[in-house]
Amino acid sequence: MSEKEHDMTNDGGESVTYTLRNIPADIDRVITDLATHARKPKATFLREFLEDSFRDVIDSFSLKNPLIASLDEELACYLGAEVMEKHFQSHYITRWNQEYQKLLGISSEDELRRVVLNNTPYLQVRAAQVLKGCSRIPRGISLTFSLFAEIAGRDRETIDRAWNRIFYSQLQEKKHRFYQDIEAIRALKKLPVLSGYRWTKDDITVRIYRPEDYAYGAWRIAITLPENYAIQMWNIPFPELEGRRFTADPGYSALISAEPDRWDQAFRFVDGACELHLYTNGVEEDQNPTPLPDVAQALLSVVEYNLL
Question: What sign has the CA pseudo-torsion 20, 22, 27, 28?
Fold first, then answer.
């Protein structure tokens, strides 16, 4: 197949002419029969087939729709950034857009508009997850974030396929971050957790789960605060629980003065979130005197006491 020339279509857009060679005779017969059934010339039938199969409705919508442009500006204002003038495009983005269309069953701009309107409440959350500190953001990013939030609201199979087809990385931390971000949006949507357990009190959410590569008795904890809470940065002491030991992830760890010349480990929130590790200490997990629900309630209480 080779490009022959560029033409201008009737609506002013650019078109490309291809010459196809070495098409097997049995394939040509199928194309001929289908074109005859559709009552269209073979060239018209093939062109429309290619348009339907490869049209990037996501790219087109992100460039032309004023709603997306307005939401991009809102996100830029929220981040203290500016929207890039030029639209960034690559073969990676084209492939990812095709995968989004397949995963979400999107074939029209009306369906995309519905996705954007349904997921606008989660755009700032997604921006805080991946764009915090950026001074410039890509055009059309609000549509990308809407698609991510839509994926987050789907079933586990769809979310796993999104990871494998769009977001995949060999780095375990990247996989952890993907599912952590998905869970944060699912919590806002009041949807069940994908793995582990979740407890909520006064819109403070504690999620306890065990990643695939963790031994039984080792857990991760994600704590999130509602947007309307003031996010103080002061240090919060870990609750003292029999048979349990906490550590905070880098960036969330702190120290607190317990008495003269003694400092205890503590934790703090960054942008309304905190991530911890939890271990069973000295006993088997199944024999631990402090079950996970009690751990969650203790964390909810200490956070509420210190931040409210």
Answer: positive
Q: Do residues 110 and 118 make contact, with C-beta atoms less than 8 angstroms apart?
A: no
pLDDT for 105-139, tens place per residue? 998 899 999 999 999 999 999 999 999 889 999 99
Instruction: Provide the residue type at 100 as one letter.
Output: Y
What distance in Å separates the CA atoms of residue 132 and residue 140, rounded to the nearest whole number?
17
Q: How far apart are CA 31 and CA 21, in angstroms?
A: 14
Whether 14 maps to a domain, the answer reads no
Residue where a domain terminates, one of 188, 223, 246: 188
| Count of C-beta atoms within a 10 Å radius of residue 82 | 14
- What CA–CA distance (Å, rounded) separates 252 from 275? 7
Coil/strand/helix, residue 288? coil
Are residues 175 and 125 part of one domain? Answer: yes
Give pTM, 2 decimals.
0.75
Tell me how far CA of residue 187 lies from CA of 15, 24, 103, 116, 282, in angstroms.
46, 53, 21, 19, 33
Instruction: Establish if 28 belongs to a structural domain.
Output: no
The type of residue at 96 is W
Q: In whole angstroms, give the CA distance from residue 176 to residue 184.
A: 12
Interacting residues of 170 by C-beta distance below 8 A, sequence separation 6+: none
